[in-house]
Amino acid sequence: MLFRISLIGIIISSIFIFAACKNDSSTAPDLSGNDQAAVIQKTGNMTKSNGQVSVMSANQINNGAHWEVKVDMPGDGGIVKFEYFVSNNELKEIKGLTPSFNYEIEPENGLINYSSAKQTALNAVSGGIIEWKLEFDLSDNMWQYRFDILSNGSEWEVRINANNGNVVRVKN
Q1: Lower CB density within 10 Å: C or N end of the chain?
Q2: Most confident of 14-28, 77-91, 100-114
Q3: Are residues 113 and 99 in the same domain?
């Protein structure tokens, strides 16, 4: 009897997991030519370089469709991921995925450029950048650069206001 109850529980759990993970292609964003070209051009304008677009896809996460563009930055610049909302092609997030982080990005909407924010973060905590991203922080209601920096064996997070370049917070 206990075996049957366990088996029924496993079957029901499997059905729920399968339903939750199912990819519904009818709700997937469309990678139409005009939107795709516009997003690629926006990304090219922000990188101010001849970076090579390596991946272009549209994803839907928690009912929020977004474009995802990965760019191989020239030289040893690493890979940078750009995300845009599919509904209006507006910037959602930029994230440095791999070292080295030696490149320039000039975001839209009057936000400070990446190299300025990077220098401010490294002035606040000297060390090596592990990861960085630019995103709109809902709790602080502002665009912020977030740098994770390794310094003397400790990991630090430095947040920079992307509008004015001021340090928002430093935490260990």
Answers
A1: N
A2: 100-114
A3: no
